[in-house]
Specification:
The chain has about 160 residues and is of the alpha+beta class. The protein has a domain of about 100 residues: Alpha-Beta Plaits (2-Layer Sandwich), CATH 3.30.70. It contains three helices and five strands. It has a three-stranded antiparallel beta sheet with strand order 2-3-5. It has a two-stranded antiparallel ribbon with strand order 1-4. Strand 2 and strand 3 form a beta hairpin. The protein is elongated and about 100 Å long. Bound molecules: iron/sulfur cluster (2 copies). The site of one iron/sulfur cluster has 15 residues, from helix 2.
Amino acid sequence: MTVTEYFTNIKDTATSIFEGMTITLSHLVRKPVTIQYPDRTPRPVKETLPDRFRGFLKVDMEICTACLACMNDCPIDCIKIVTKKDEALKERVLTQFDIDEAKCMYCGLCTEPCPTGAIHFTKEFEGATEDLSSLLFSFVPENQVIIPYKALKKEKEETVNA
Ligand code: SF4
Ligand code: SF4
């Protein structure tokens, strides 16, 4: 190494340290940008989420036809739907509709084939828990059955023509 290179290296090192310290010191006089989530945000975080945000799934059982399309399209078997023929009611009923949100990867493949939009994403996202079983969402109350929604012929025609 020549004498010139030696002093050039010293100069470059000093310049580098000076630039780094300038940036560091500039942060001493800036306001902190830390956001105190969740209780001190200017607005509730859910209100700031975009309309197409994918939070927990929800099923509107009033318009679920029990077609099983969502269950069949889930690539990792998060959804379990059970139906049976109810002898007293003389029709097919839903006895179970569970979604395991602990497994769900929010891909949306279950929402796309739903003929009525019954299964959809919400803006709920706070799922941190030590008990994964608490993320198993059941949409048919225990020991109850739900009669699947049947679209009227007119509604079906409107859907087809839309
Ligand atoms: S979002 Fe994807 S992973 Fe989650 S239940 Fe629907 S299909 Fe399954
Ligand atoms: S939520 Fe939609 S896709 Fe799933 S069973 Fe009900 S109607 Fe069919």
